[in-house]
Amino acid sequence: AIRRGPLAPPEAGTEVFAIDTGTGASDKPKYISNFPVDMAIITSITASEDNYNGSRLAQERYLVTNSTAAESGSINFSLDYNDGWFGAGGTNRVSWMWKRAPGYFDAVCYTGNSSTNTLNNSLGVAPEMIFYKARNGTVSWRVHANITGSGYDRLVLDSSSSKIDTEVYGSGKELASQPSATELVLGSGSGTNNSSSFNYIAYLFASLDGVSKVGSYTGTGGTPQNIDCGFTSGARFVLIKKSSGTGDWWVFDTARGIVPGNDPALNLNTTDAEDNSYDMIDPYSAGFTVTDAGYDMNESGSTYIFYAIA
User: Fold this and answer.
1) Ramachandran bin of 271, using left for φ above 0, alpha for ψ from -120 to 50, beta for the remaining angles
2) Are 177 and 152 in contact (CB under 8 A)?
3) CA 193, 195, 197, 199 torsion: positive or negative?
């Protein structure tokens, strides 16, 4: 059986999330996490390249976050690796790695049925953000993000487009009911998360005090604003997407640098190499600071969703 993580919620982000730029090794894990890796995304820092996503549930198959492509191979998430995983080598890449844990993150593989479809999960709290992808289908990634508690905004991970709308629950919708701490009930809606033609994987993310935060903010224009995530030593990983309009899925991390001044930024919906032309976010002990009114980061009146890990 695949290990499903600790029985208790983690007390620190380093227990369940790691960033590594690669060892270049050929006989051992190339990306070191110090825990079994249940999900990872890897991409090039310096070159145009796809953003590869893999999971221990899928073993040697991978998906691409910037594409509608079906699952392909090969990528190695061997169960023998308790401290990292194989993948494309070289020191010009970065890997973000997650471990499943209560209150923080879970991954579920399932088969669509175009009807009411109940998925059990081990998250232990209602997920606030969910990524879905058909493993054997050429369809977009679906994202559900519940920021306000009033409903899940629907977005597309492989696109810069704004949110589609806010999900209304029902058997004919993408979500048949509000997700709970143990169940995710899908409906028969025309989205891309429950077609009987496909096998899927879903990634479930939640806010955990001192470890992770899913949230939103409204842009202030040229005035920097601190985003309080409840952390004590700042965010090591930040994902930001403008939901009220067009905007890329921007990723920042401390391995490449979250610093005062220009920040090395990547995004999940394109093959672009790292962009470090702008001061987009800054360090902040309780989370992070958004600074730039441009680049889809802090435009006056625009709404943004974010996911941060300490």
Assistant:
1) alpha
2) no
3) positive
User: What global pTM score does this model have?
Assistant: 0.94
| One-letter amino acid for residue 88 of the chain | A
**Contact criterion met (CB below 8 Å) for 290 and 243:** no
Tell me the pLDDT tens digit for each residue of 179-191. 999 999 999 988 8
If DSSP states are collapsed to H, E and C, what string results for 273-308?
Answer: CCECCCCCEEEECCEEEECCCCCCCCCCCCEEEEEE
Q: Residue 145 pairs with which residues in a beta bridge?
A: 129, 153
Q: Is the dihedral of CA 188, 191, 197, 200 positive or negative?
A: negative
Structure tokens at 142: 């679906």
Contact 2, 108 (CB under 8 A): no
Lookup: tokens for 201: 């994987």
DSSP 14: G
Distances (CA, A) of 83 to 28, 35, 80, 180: 10, 5, 9, 31
* 49-67 mean pLDDT: 88
- Tokens 């208790």 belong to residue: 8
For 165-183, what is the mean pLDDT?
Answer: 91
Q: Give the strand pairing for 249-253 and 183-186.
A: unpaired
Instruction: List, in order, residues 6 or more apart from 286 with CB less than 8 Å away.
Output: 226, 228, 229, 230, 231, 232, 234
- DSSP conformational letter for 181: S
Reading the block at residue 203, the tokens are: 């990634």
Q: How far apart are CA 140 and CA 159, in angstroms?
A: 8
